[in-house]
Amino acid sequence: MTVTNNSPLTRNKTDKSYNRQDWKKGYDSQPNEYDYWVDDIEGEIPNELEGTLFRNGPGLLDIHGTPIRHPFDGDGMISAISFQNGRVHYRNRFVRTEGYVKEREVGKILYRGVFGTSKPGGFFNNAFDLKLKNIANTNVIYWGGKLLALWEAAEPHRLDPATLETLGLDYLDGLLEPGDAFSAHPWVDPSCEMDGGEPCLVNYSIKTGLSSTITIFEFNDDGKLLRRHAHSIPGFCFIHDFVITPHYCIFFQNPVVFNPLPFVLGWRGAGECVQYQPKQPTRIIVIPRIAPYQGVKILETQAGFVFHHANAFELEDKICIDSICYDSLPQVNPDISYKEVDFDALSPGQLWRFTLDLKNETVQRQMLESRCCEFPTLDPDKVGRSYRYLFIGAAHDATGNAPLQAILKIDWQSGDRQLHSFAPKGYISEPVFVPRPNAQAEDDGWVLTLVYDSDRHRSDVVILDGRNLNREPIATVHLKHHIPYGLHGNWVDKVFNG
Ligand code: CO
């Protein structure tokens, strides 16, 4: 494996690849909305790279000077970075959620955040106020001609893809009722067996309590509903992501309990009331995608806590699922700012493969990558299929827990790894793999990622060559400002002019 820069060999063993003071500046709010052609570009934007990278994430980490308690509570801000004829345009807009608009009007926090942000005024002002702010900050997808900002606990917001203007809540042609959830982690099945090889979007919603209902939705290219089916699952579900294969949707029901009382009483955010149960098994819920959708299986394993899955595929009677697992769910601690996190005290996310034997209902697990990693991406044509290459955000060093400063490429066939590190000053966001038009190989494309440059307090859009991560970046697009660390986004093969 080659490390492209700042090789660990050149540092003292006790030195860290990062500096927490540098890292936490990436969580400064970005209250401004920009719209400009980028003129500061190193390298050359490939002419074939044409389309728009949409990103979502918290843009405000404080409300008029009052810090929010967790970045997951930050108002959703969408960035649209479009590429055409070797030029790059940047635009960002906050999603005009009801909460964002009202809080901006009055200049203070009006809503409780799921992760512990409370309104000023203490107990009496927070007790029994269960109205959550739909902050639309987790993902952004373009499907069926609609650009949707997603937040898993409520309905999507629809935006104009050209201007990023908020058009309002979207009920998916009446499929959702007001207040219904719609997950922030849809997958596109690139070639759906049931639809003659056409692509379809697969997503789910969860209603949870003592038992839970998982509803699966599948939409065609025009955004029309193809299939919908609901399943009752025992127990509380804290599920952020899922994974698909041609025949199944698979969910990991993390071993947690939820004690809602402190939340109802206003002492704690809902996220602070979720407690990890390390001695309990993780349940793997396997739901058929093929009608009549019967024969749901629930298998058990020891898995740790899973937020994100990388991919899944079928091997005869088996299903392999590649997931990022944490030894435990860090308890959301109301007394310590997330910015003061002690990385060394937390367990790193590591990549595991779970092999489900559906006949014997057994699960085998194997660690694939022990380096701290998160935010996987792959060739969109390989979603739900066996695949050769994975790209994933990673720590600079091979061991320990640390902020993500590098992109790791894993070749499952050869076992080779390539690491492109931006340490010590750079901090990466979720990479997105964009296939080159008419690509012949699975890794023939570009890996796009935002890198927070703590030296300049600005963000760069970096384009790496998917075939060789050890190369210098193909291009580094220097934005005029920083973008706070984001969550998820997607590439769309289309340039929108607004
Ligand atoms: Co996520």
Description:
- The chain is mainly β and 498 residues long.
- The protein has one domain (3-492).
- The chain contains four helices and 35 strands.
- The strands form nine sheets. Strands 2, 30, 31, 32, 33 and 34 form a six-stranded antiparallel beta sheet that branches. Strands 1-7-6-3-35 form a five-stranded antiparallel beta sheet, with no helix packed on it.
- β4 (62-63) and β5 form a beta hairpin.
- The longest helix has 9 residues, at 98-106.
- The radius of gyration is 22 Å and the shape is globular.
- The N and C termini lie far apart (44 Å).
- The relative contact order is 0.16.
- Residues 1-9 and 123-130 have low confidence and may be disordered.
- Bound molecules: cobalt (II) ion.
- Cobalt (II) ion binds at residues 185, 240-241, 307-308, 487-488.
